[in-house]
Every structure is written in C-alpha cells, then in structure tokens.
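Here's what a typical entry looks like (Integrase catalytic domain-containing protein):
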Amino acid sequence: MLTTEFCLDAVREAITQYGCPEIFNTDQGCQFTRQEFTGLLKD
C-alpha cells in the first residue's frame, strides 16, 4: 500500500532531480488527495 509519506518523498525527489512537472496525473487515491500532497504540488 502506498502511503502519503512515501508518495511525498518520491515527488520531492523527482522534483529535485527533474524540476516541477506541468501536469501531475494520479488515480485520485486517498494518498494523492490529502492536503499534505496537494499542498506540496501547489507550492
């Protein structure tokens, strides 16, 4: 099971390596719709 923290760490690492994506598409699972995750993408 993917946790929000695991997903946050993966996205932070990807942004560090590749920069911010223009589009971030997910399956709308609960780990991707939490405030912590959406807040990271908005920043």
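The first helix runs from residue 4 to 18.

More examples are in the samples folder.
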